[in-house]
Design a protein that fits this description.
- This is ABC transporter ATP-binding protein.
- This protein is an alpha/beta fold.
- It has a domain at about 1-80 and about 190-240: P-loop containing nucleotide triphosphate hydrolases (Rossmann fold, 3-Layer(aba) Sandwich), CATH 3.40.50.
- Helices cover about 40% and strands about 25% of the residues.
- It is built from ten helices and ten strands.
- The strands form two sheets. The chain has a six-stranded mixed β-sheet, sandwiched between helices. The chain has a four-stranded antiparallel β-sheet with strand order 2-1-4-5, covered by helices on one side.
- Helix 3 (about 95-105) packs parallel to helix 6 (about 140-150).
- The N and C termini lie far apart (about 35 Å).
Amino acid sequence: MSAPLLQLRGVTAYYGAIAALKGVDVDVNAGEIVTLIGANGAGKSTLMMTIFGAPQARDGSIVYDRRDITRMPTHEIARLKIAQSPEGRRIFGRMSVLENLKMGAAVTGFAHYEEDLARVFSIFPRLKERANQRGGTLSGGEQQMLAIARALMSRPRLLLLDEPSLGLAPLVAKQIFSVVADLNRDEGLTVFLVEQNAYHALKLAHRGYVMVNGKITLSGEGRELLERPEVRAAYLEGGR
């Protein structure tokens, strides 16, 4: 079997003296949607940021496309066809939609800019309507669309998607998950998804991991984890 596109082994990360990640092992194979679920403060977003080099892993290894990126600076990782749509969206509020998308394209150059712009506008027609509007004046759902579109402008093979449904109305969140499923099915985009809405995340994902206090405690196929009594009790009961 070929090596995973992304492989983490024994990864630890610290904030000062506090261990946020405690020996994490995760595999993401090319063409998969893999989700990481867990309670607030479990270390999920820290794991996403550690993959991107900020903070850097103290121990263990992070290998992407057979290349060790554990000690690589963030700006170099971004050039390797990994893109991140971070928690809280972090778009540039004073810049227009178009300017935000240009920032995404700048990571890998502008050779395919017009083509990529047409692609993200076809995925998110709302952004085309709002092209000249400031990012900060968009609704929460539109800002999330912009964060994902900005990431897609760098033509990633792997998209790190952190809490895409956070703060969104259920209907808008459903729309975002539907786009992620389409990108995976139609374009073969590999997605590593951190998501608090365990029900939607596990329904969407091929495989999933459960994180508790910086450690992976369970893993398996998305549908299989949905049926596990301990997952249902901790993350699903009454929480849809």
